[in-house]
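Notes to self after the Tuesday call (sharing in case useful).
The group wants a holo model before anyone commits to mutagenesis around the pocket. I volunteered. Ligand is flavin-adenine dinucleotide. Logging inputs and output together so the record is complete.
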Amino acid sequence: MSTKEFDYDVLYLGSGHGTFDGAIPLAATGKRVAVVESGLIGGTCPNRGCNAKITLDAPVALQQTATALQGLVSPQLELNWNATVAHKHEVIKDLPGFIAGLLKDAGVTLFKGRGHFIDPHTIAVGTQQLSAEKIVIATGLHPHRLDIPGRQLAHDSREFMNLQELPHRIVIIGAGYISLEFATIANAFGAQVTVLLRGDKALRKFHQPFVQKLLALLEKRGVTFIKNTTVTSFSEEYGVKQVHYNQTETVAADWILDATGRNPNTEGLGLTELGVAYDEAGIIVNDHLQTTVPNIYASGDVIKKKQPRLTPTAIFESKYLQQLFAGTTTAPIDYPAIPSVVFSSPRIAWLGLSPVQAAQDAAISQVHHNVLDNWYRHVEREQYGENILLFDKEHHLVGATEISEHAEDVINALLPALELKLDPAQVGRLIHLFPTISSAAWEGL
Ligand SMILES: Cc1cc2nc3c(=O)[nH]c(=O)nc-3n(C[C@H](O)[C@H](O)[C@H](O)COP(=O)(O)OP(=O)(O)OC[C@H]3O[C@@H](n4cnc5c(N)ncnc54)[C@H](O)[C@@H]3O)c2cc1C
Ligand SMILES: NC(=O)c1ccc[n+]([C@@H]2O[C@H](COP(=O)([O-])OP(=O)(O)OC[C@H]3O[C@@H](n4cnc5c(N)ncnc54)[C@H](O)[C@@H]3O)[C@@H](O)[C@H]2O)c1
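Result:
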């Protein structure tokens, strides 16, 4: 069948960053593009992920600075949860309409509803059938929920960010990004927070000495961490919930956040019948993001991959597919270095090789800084910060990790040095505005 015999050249399932950053420029090249979305246009990041979370975090970051500057500013800042949640709603409420507008203006046709495959070229949405030459699965992830008695008593991250009143005692299960970010926020807004870890480590992919320091700082502010727990059930009596763990132990809660990870949205799409290979970690793709059925591709979080499942990764993939479909590239996807940050207080961010990986290579040198050695960190009376920069023999930056209140800005500033493999002379040619975090970060190179 020629492409003209299909309704569309490219049809995307899902409308998150794995779709719209590429679908908009693709439609602008004249391709006939459709997007099928079962929920809010824009997907997780704008509606119940990054944008919502960072809005709740803003007063927390301000409070940290104000606390450090006590005596210069007064009184102590008090955070208002209810008003902050309302502010968050104001910030994000127009994003689905805005993104839908961008898609429509570019000529993309939007369909509302849950899509599933009829055959490799046909998607059913309600009573409609839509055909396309190429189909991109960009259906994202959903929260994993512990399958234990009383599971309905626990909640997920979306529900946390919509709470009208902040519960007094919050128990969080899991110790990944969502757990540590939301523990930081809930603690700053005045909740009594307990985090139950499955093992003895949090944020496993981050530099563990920095993670231990983060836990110690949060503990000092009143967060309780209980390690080596197996949560067995939740119960409720007279409005008080109990989290039962390790057979005999319990912790009381007014609200329980199940932050035990997120799983790919692969069920109910008809993938097995078509022969699209996938497993519990996601859809299997080759180096062109093509699934085991040649005209079906995948993009964003739903892909099984070693790259971090983050918005910038999803954007990079959707833009790669746009170039592939527009015919401006035939090359395999070539991921750049992808930085990660946990928006806790302090933040931990990293890029490139980790100090543990570098320790296995004698050609790589590690330079450890106390970031407070830089005068600029005293302007806001930062209390604590460390970073480790990793260099190869020619002094190219090959890795960086930092814990501090400004770690994300430092890692962003260092990104070009690592990705573009700048040599010392090139590093010297780049002049940052002074005095800024970027200029302070660059001094480390
Ligand atoms: C609480 C939270 C905080 C986060 N914070 C950050 C952060 O600070 N920085 C960062 O980089 N990343 C963050 N992330 C991760 C980021 O949100 C994701 O990496 C990103 O949204 C992935 O985009 P995507 O398009 O792959 O998936 P999604 O944005 O999840 O989009 C998938 C879409 O597909 C739709 N869909 C699913 N099945 C179907 C179907 N059958 N038919 C039609 N539509 C369907 C869904 O409704 C959804 O809208 C966060 C995630 C969470 C949960
Ligand atoms: N700052 C950011 O970029 C950011 C913020 C939030 C979320 N995200 C993204 O969202 C996704 C989900 O984040 P997350 O924090 O839910 O997942 P995660 O994978 O980071 O953490 C899950 C945690 O739950 C624990 N766990 C798993 N099963 C468990 C069990 N049965 N009992 C107890 N603990 C268990 C794991 O050990 C881990 O500590 C990730 O892909 C992440 O990239 C990113």
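Two things stood out.
The two ends are 56 Å apart (CA to CA).
The chain has a mean pLDDT of 97.
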